[in-house]
UniProtKB/TrEMBL annotation:
Pfam family of the protein (one): DUF3458_C
Signal sequence, start to end: none
Name of the protein described by the UniProt record: Aminopeptidase N
Any GO BP annotation: proteolysis
Species the sequence originates in: Cereibacter ovatus
Chemical reaction(s) catalysed: Release of an N-terminal amino acid, Xaa-|-Yaa- from a peptide, amide or arylamide. Xaa is preferably Ala, but may be most amino acids including Pro (slow action). When a terminal hydrophobic residue is followed by a prolyl residue, the two may be released as an intact Xaa-Pro dipeptide
Gene3D superfamilies: 2.60.40.1840, 3.30.2010.30, Neutral Protease Domain 2, Peptidase M1, alanyl aminopeptidase, C-terminal domain, tricorn interacting facor f3 domain
Amino acid sequence: DTPIRLVDYLPPSHLVDSVALTFRLHPQATRVLSQVCLRPNPARPGRHDLRLDGEALRLIGAAVDGVPIAAMPDETGLTLPASSLPDGPFTFTAEVEIAPEANTALEGLYMSRGMYCTQCEAEGFRKITFYPDRPDVMAPFRVRIESDLPVLLSNGNEVANGPGWAEWHDPWPKPAYLFALVAGDLVAHSAGFTTMSGRDVALNIWVRPGDEARCGYAMDSLIRSMKWDEDVYGREYDLDVFNIVAVDDFNMGAMENKGLNIFNSKYVLALPETATDDDFARIEAIIAHEYFHNWTGNRITCRDWFQLCLKEGLTVFRDQQFSSDMRSAAVKRIEDVLTLRARQFREDDGPLAHPVRPEEYIEINNFYTATVYEKGAELIGMLKRLVGDKGYAKALDLYFRRHDGQAATIEDWLAVFEDATGRDLSRFKLWYSEAGTPRLKVTDDFRDGRFSLHVEQVNLPTPGQPDKHPKVIPIAVGLLNPNGDEVVPTTVLELTETRQSFHFDGLAARPVPSILRGFSAPVVLERATTPEERAFLLAHDTDPFNKWEAGRALAKEVLARMVTDGAQPGPDWLDALARVALDEALDPAFRALALRLPGEDDMAQTLHAAGHVPDPDRIHAARQRMAAALAERLDPALPGLIDALAEPGPFTPEARAAGRRALRLAALGLMTRRDGGARAAAVFRAANNMTEEVGALSCLLDVGRGQEELALFESRWGRDRLVMDKWFTLQILHAAPAEAAAKVDRLTAHPDFDWKNPNRFRAVIGALSANHAGFHHASGAGYRVLADWLIRLDPLNPQTAARMSTAFETRARYDADRQALMADQLDRILAAPALSRDLAEMAGRMRR
Ligand code: HT7
Ligand code: ZN
């Protein structure tokens, strides 16, 4: 497979003025009739062939301006020679047959438990009909659906219906990847929204009968998202109806199809008894994310798939802003940085590193990555920090004004910021083109009242990019005096060179610097400091992110020594953490985060970066010892904490109550190490919500108990697919390292292990790679069982198989034996017959 390159971009040969589609739905033989009005693109002078994408389509007939043509499709589409086409506007019509029931890849038109649905991003529309399936071809769509199923939906507004048919019209020009169709026996949870200009919009969440009572939180999140986008970005919704459909078989989280968002049911359906606080928070964020795409993605889309971060980075940034406005901004920022480091820093550190705007790909589905999404969002945050809130608001207004209805590029995006603020962003653009996480080495000195920070940035090579350039890095800094008062409030320093010094004058004493406040740039800060200074910042920093970061860094240093020297945690760390954990003036959610020990994968990454070869067993054992020591230190306070944090009234998913539950469960986890699980078993039995039910069960499993509770959980929830996903996951996640692979074997033999359902597959196989010591067990059993399942899934669902193969991306961190074992499994994958392009690209990059 030859790579597709950004430098080869050419505008489309033809533009589409309108599309009319008719679907005659049938599980094995759906007929799709298309009428596409095209004209030569003035941006491509001369006469050109018209290439229409099309895959796995049975062509029944085609015509140009009503005259049948003898079209001969190849494997990837159909070429209409320039000589056979009028040099003005013309109409291409086609009739094709497709088999949605046989579509296990869940891309194009497929079936999920009797319901028809589509997934067209990135290149699924070409599995529906012949069309120029590229995001820079935008057109209004008219869709007629014929089926006996009661609910027939497509994009835009419904314009007519009758028995067995419905017609939809979407007036907003859109690329084919935003096309959607749903047909099924569905019921709606409905509400309404009046936009800021007074237009009424009907809101519907369509689910299977019986699930309608589980849509309240998603609907509430949608309404709050619509209002927030009006208040904060001035963006109004633009159709008469906004439909959301929940689907059980879905490759990702959700999809922002114009006016008809399609969701993985996991991110819609929630009741306190079935969904955890994390589930509620994720539903809120994903509902918002997909809704926000209406402007950042749909009204303004991407010129080509290299520009994916244009819509995804910006929309992630917007959903993060929304969640931090709805919840605690400090806690949200800490959680986002934890995710960024766990997923994106890990990606940047290995063979899959790529720029936020990649320059080539083989399979675009492999580039829906943490780098494009999460690092892409960090770039927006940095831009905002550099130009200020007012500059950002001006730039965004200009972006919406200038590019509405267009397919835009990162150059367009940066030009808007330059034009709105007068800043030259040519150096900033390097963030989009160079992969890798910059290291910031910081030293300081203090003389005659002047405190100086000396900063050096190191940009290490990444695959295919040996030479890097210095980046523009906003470094937010505050200074505290020795008694803990802030003497210099947060100031944004701009690092533009490899080495630079920044000075603060007029200080009476040597201050303690708080550097990279709010995690102002996606970099690794390297600064030789003392545990005392970290403890000081943990106690006094006014920046909540850096306060947490100081505790985190302390814990990582202690844990690293426990791994490498077999040390025990000293009283200083234990006392510092205990002070935060028991400080009632602090937000319980923040205290819970402070109590969360560094993850094992995180420690492996940190130890590797420090020049060690991480040993997963030692990391696991040391982390267990660390938890035990913390439990011992906090022992007298734990019962009181658990009692005091019990929520008296009925369950509410709002952040304040969720924060209290998080702290209560953190205390319960520690107490389980002291009382043999008595209290956790009691909390499990008394729980009236899934957060506490799953939380208490996790505490028990973590100490090798909980078998009775697992059985109880299964008998209680055996018929609920989403809840049972948790039952599967928990057992793998908490399996002892030597037993994890065998546990996968046992659970994949369970009658409810439906491996063709991506949620269930991820619940089991994905959980294995999240059990660090289990996956990396020295026997190689973890690697083998993952490879077995990827090889099995790939022919059916290459997208999900490829995404889950990234468990192998950290190979280079480990010892030679483990590296060889992982290489063997990658070789087995690469040797699998009829390997998909998706998995071949991923395994190939990781094997290099
Ligand atoms: N824009 C969407 C990304 C996407 C996707 C979603 C579902 C299944 C397959 C998919 N491929 C790409 C989701 C989003 O970022 O909002
Ligand atoms: Zn998105």
